[in-house]
Design goal:
By secondary structure, this protein is mainly β. It has a domain at about 5-45: Rubrerythrin, domain 2. Helices cover about 0% and strands about 20% of the residues. The protein is built from no helices and 3 strands. The chain has a 3-stranded antiparallel sheet with strand order 2-1-3, with no helix packed on it. The radius of gyration is 29 Å and the shape is rod-shaped. The chain starts with a strand and ends in a 39-residue tail after the last strand.
């Protein structure tokens, strides 16, 4: 579970919150009720580049390449 750092824009209160990716981000300072903003770069929340993978399955199409040309191979050369 990643840790998000928040800092209050009003009172300067900074704290860390353990949240999952599906949790909503905090927007209100628990101390003064002011607006919070996320602080990036100070915690170990890493968006690892190795996680980006795409299913490029269009290069090797199994069907549609060599079908439909029936009778082309029945050429008898004498
Ligand atoms: Zn505050």
């Amino acid at each position: 579970m990643p840790t998000y750092s928040y800092a209050c824009a009003q009172c300067g209160n900074a704290f860390d919150v353990h949240q999952s990716f599906s949790d909503d981000a905090l927007t209100v300072c628990p101390s003064c009720g002011g607006p919070l903003r996320k602080v990036y770069g100070t915690v170990g929340v890493t968006f690892n580049g190795s996680g980006f993978y795409r299913t490029d399955s269009r290069s090797s199409g199994p069907s549609g390449a060599s079908s439909g040309s029936s009778g082309a191979s029945s050429v008898s050369s004498s």
